[in-house]
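for the record, two folds in this file. i put them one after another cuz i was lazy. first one right below, seq on top, structure tokens after. the second one comes after a little note so u can tell where it starts
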Amino acid sequence: LAKRTVGRGRGKEYALKVLRPPFADDPLYHEYLENEYRVCSAVKHPNLIRVHEVVLDSKRPHLVMDYVPGQSLRDRLARERPNISAALSWLVEVADGLNYLHDQGYVHRDVKPQNIIIAEGSPVRVIDFALARRQDTTLSQRLMNRLFERRRPGTWSYMSPEQILNKPITGQSDVYGLGVTLYECLTGRLPFTAEDPQDLLRQHLRAAAPSPRMLRPEVPIELDDFVRAMLAKDPLDRPHWMEYLSGKLRALSTACSDID
């Protein structure tokens, strides 16, 4: 939907997130850009992307944001399966950024490897806040319909049960998305897969994820249990606070430093 170009100004590099045709003329995608600007311009944390400007009155609607060197976690996972400690250390930083976001009253709603940028010697960054909303709110039915019409399977694979049902969302929904991401980092596969999108959504609502240890035996039992808790169907059964989750992942990363 967008292409990224790099420009310079005020002595630093910026990235442009530009809507391409036909989305450049679609009011819904203008709404995405406006929403991303509204959220990202209001938050300031080293693990969250900063957006400085939104431009809609042109043939190239775009956002001006910090330029972040590196690659997405999606690209990293396509190339290799990371060691357990490294994966945990990356997601600690993601959890730190999301904890700050939640403290500001927002939920990201689209936590997945594609939206996590990793660069050597730089903080891990969470990007793409197009779907971010205030906590305890739902998406409009119009937007939900468009999401399913556009068939965004990459997003569906990380959607919490309450998102699928369009119930009011809290930070526990981001816990679920981060849990799916951690599961994929550990095992090299998603907890739920299906050719039919409706079957995939049904699995998120009803099926239990296979134990990560079944796919990677060196995963410690404590970590296996924690990942499955993050994937609980009921939000109240998941870890309640990103701050707690970050601390737990940090301790597990240290404990796993000698594994592979």
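(here's the note) second protein begins now
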Amino acid sequence: MPFRSLTLQGPYRFLFPTSKDDLLLNPERHKYSLSTLMDMHAGSPLTHLEIPGYTAWSIPQATLQHLVHLGIRQASNLDKVTVFFENCVRLESLWISSEGDPSQTSVLLTALAANPEAFRHLTHLKLALAAPPDDDDGGTAAINELQKLTPFLLSKKKLRCLDWSEPWGSIEFMRPLLGSLSSLPQLEVLGLDLTCDHDDAAEMLKSGMLNQYIPKSLTALRLWVDYFDGRAPISNSLNTLLTGLTQLAFLWLDDYIRDPLAEPLTLAQSASSLQLLCHRDDFYEVLRTDAGVTLEPPWSFTKAVFPSVDDLGCADRYWLMNGHWEVIRDQLRRRGDTGGED
């Protein structure tokens, strides 16, 4: 039966290698298997593909030319990424994950810097890239790496959804990425992992300096915030940010349960257009009446872990949360095991 969308988790005995070593020892067998699968459906070409990274280079050229969405998990050998630049001429959505391998981060960002006009139709970009190793130069390595991404981002005038889902040291280190956001005129959906790993970074959050980077046009926002020694940088800056996001309909804030940045009801009251709020692992639908703002009871475990597009309100919100469900599952498991402690 023809299909247009394929998501493969691997490993599979016949289709995919059981390990990277298996791939190295038997590259032709696995390349042939994947190519055969694609060729079987040449009359109904794939447009949506998500696969493990060590199989990415087996995708036939004819398949690449039809892809609209490409997801590569645990990417490796990203020095070959120019194959995608040359062949993915219709690509609108790209998701690359290489957590745990800083060398792949540098390779990818260097390639993007050298090919800023690649993927000119891109509307959705999700990157989960390992940070450079810690250094003693004030974060220069991280800043330099992120600066490589800037030309690529600035050329993506159609980009509507951006998700940066890997913490890179402090907010200060992420200035090159944050500073690019205001130059993306279509940006509506944003996800950020932020770390306040020293007092200066915490002060940026407390003072509201972060707020100047967040576009006012957002309709959906995901914030994962880690703060110094687990102490919340308490201030009204987050409420001020949300008050200024007058079109924001969806928010996921992941902070510390013992020392939260804000309470759920306060978040809903600050964001005047908010319809759906996820605070850590609890989803609340927001009700607004003449009597004020209230929250519906949290979603059930099943609905929180396996929501539909309709549950979240639209496909872009579902896209934003994709890749983060395991965080919610882990928190729900811990809460169940410990009686609410995090």
